[in-house]
Each structure stands twice: as structure tokens, then as C-alpha cells.
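Revision sheet: C-alpha cells.
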Amino acid sequence: VQLVESGGGLVQAGGSLRLSCVASGSLFSINAMGWFRQVPGKERELVATISSGGSADYADFVKRRFTISRDNAKNTLYLQMNSLKPEDAAMYYCAAYEDQVGEYHYWGQGTQVTVSS
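Predicted:
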């Protein structure tokens, strides 16, 4: 399974970005997918997850600002980020949950989000 993110960049506080993640390869055992983020010196943290059926969960710090979605026909995961804050700046990673392993086993290379105040 390969995951390729895109859509990061520089945005002013209050602005919006949409991240995309295209999955390829053997996807038969992949159901849930998620977005994580990490800043240097801190642990990676969960941002949002979504099941194959579209059920989504969010970290409290992004609720009502971020929306995760997926297009199963296109094997693409999205993260719409609105009302961005400087503290949202991070490297954002797409991840796929491998049912046979029982963890987020596949990761993209990340896309950088920078928010200016």
C-alpha cells in the first residue's frame, strides 16, 4: 500500500486548506484511514479518522473546523481544514489501518502545513 499526500502549504490564520491522500496497491484489507500530524520535538497526534462506511471521529482540537472524507471509488482521502490557527502548523500524514495487523500500518510521506499569524 502506498499513500501520497498533497495540498499542504502556507496559509494565513483563519484560512483554509484541503489535503488529499491517494492510496494505491493492495487495498483489500484497508478499511479505516486517518490523518495525523506532528511538529518537531513532539509526538505524532491523531487528527481525524474515518471508516470505510464514512463514520468519522475527530480530535477535540479540530472539531467543527476540520472535516475528513473519502472517495472510495478514487481511493482518495481528504481533510478539509477551515479556520486554521498557528498551532495547526505541522507535518500532516495520511495513514491506513491494516485490519490484519490491527494498527495504522501504512503511512504517507507527509505534507507540510504552515499557518502564519
